[in-house]
Amino acid sequence: MIFLAIRYLIERKRQTLLTFLGVFLGTMAYVAVSGFFLGFHVFIVEQLVNNAAQIHIQARKDYLSAHQLDQAFYENSYRHVFWYFPPSGNLGYLEVQDPQSWYERLARDPRVEAYSPLLTTAALFSLSKISVSAVLIGCNPIQQQKVTSIADYVVDGHFRDLAVGGNRVILGDELMKRLGVGINQTVRVSVGTGNASPFKVVGRYYTGNRFADSQAYAAINDVQRLNGTPNQVNEIGVRLKDYRQAAAIATNWSRIAPERTESWDQQNANILSVFRIQDALRFSMIATVVIVAGFGIYNVLNMTVNQKRQDIAILRSMGYDTFDVVMLFFSQGLILGVLGGACGLFAGYFFCRYLQTIPFMPAAPGNPQGYLHISLDSAIYIQAALVALISSSLASILPARAAGRLTPIDIIRAGG
Fold first, then answer.
1. Where would I find the MacB-like periplasmic core domain in this sequence (predicted)?
2. DSSP E strand boundaries for 191-281
3. Which parts of 252-380 are beta strand (E)?
4. Does the pLDDT of residue 326 top 80, yes or no?
């Protein structure tokens, strides 16, 4: 039966080739597009997960609404209060209220891999007559290396050098350029209260993100002393053993303390919404593969059935039953689907390998050549193979069933 199916396909070389190319190109395109989209997805998620804390425990910032104080000022007639200039301001806190209880809670939680207290403040960096405002982040250097991947981006010096203390600072590449400062030089840092303090530049980091590279890191004790707020922290960064649980854990923690607790995906919901659009494009690719391959196979088999009516009559007269005739034409579509899909998978894989050698993105420490991030996940190839196989099978059913219903007497009556 397989021999007859192959012979019928060979007899119609042009139609068979066009159908094969439809399945081949559709499968190859699905592999390449899915690899690109998923590679970009994985790259962005890795950046969001590793470059910052996976859960941020921050001092709560609630803002006054226009009528929030009406009842407090006008107890009996607060429903009829209208403000020319409504109350405004911040009802929150400047710091985490009880950081020690958070440290104990995080240390006991088996889901937590590491945590680091932070004190983030606006600062003015001065060198000679040059002054630049930037964000100064005070952290526990040893713990911060476990929570984020900032240490991997240090290109001069070592991030752990901050742990020595003594007013040391690591500047972002952009901030160093704006100040014109070099390694082992001293800058004066002021937070607006008190006198400026000298800080020795012991390192430089470069992430490729201009905003991130305009910040600076120092030991939290030095920043607390500079800020005049000993033992104060305004954020605790947390890294989990499974980052996918971050949203559920953050929501649960937000119910047990006054601090604002957000996960990495909650803070980047707008960015992650782009991936839903990518998924829609991928699914449209699946639909395209199914339609192109299905119509091609259906047309080829339908024409073959009409042109091979006499052969069907002869086969039925020789003793071939309905199932044999159905399998004869069904196997033709299956052969096209399997061969086209298999060749498309191999071509898609090597095309993805080629895309990985294209310098398309800006150079960064984690990707110095700026190559494209292409996913080679086995799930992509399994999905592509299933799409090719299912589309060819579905498109083969109707012509095969039509061929199986033909009997010798019906063919003779129809003039076959």
1. 16-250
2. 197-205, 215-219, 235-240, 260-263
3. 260-263
4. no
- How far is Cα of residue 239 from the mean position of the Cα atoms in its chain? 18
% of the chain residues with pLDDT over 90: 25
For residue range 25-53, what is the model confidence (pLDDT) as tens digits? 888 888 888 888 888 888 878 777 788 88
What's this model's pTM, rounded to 2 decimal places?
0.69
Which class for 247: exposed (0-12), middle (13-18), buried (19 or more C-beta within 10 A)? middle
Whole-number Å distance between alpha carbons of 11 and 325: 18
Q: Which two tokens stand for residue 33?
A: 């597009």
Q: What single-letter DSSP state applies at residue 258?
A: S
Contact of 201 with 74, CB cutoff 8 Å? no
- Kindly list the distances between the CA atom of residue 314 and the CA atoms of 124, 323, 329, 406, in Å, as whole numbers in the listed order: 93, 15, 15, 11
Residue with tokens 């962005």: 44
Domain regions of the chain by residue span: 2-49+271-413, 55-267
What pLDDT sits at residue 62? 65
**pLDDT score at 411:** 57
Under 8 Å between Cβ of 160 and 141: yes
Following DSSP, what letter does each residue of 101-148 receive, concatenated? Answer: HHHHHHHH-TTEEEEEEEEEEEEEEEETTEEEEEEEEEE-HHHHHHHS
Q: Residue 59: which of 250, 232, 270 has the closest Cα?
A: 232
Helices (H), 155-234: 173-179, 220-227
Structure-token pair, residue 290:
């199914």
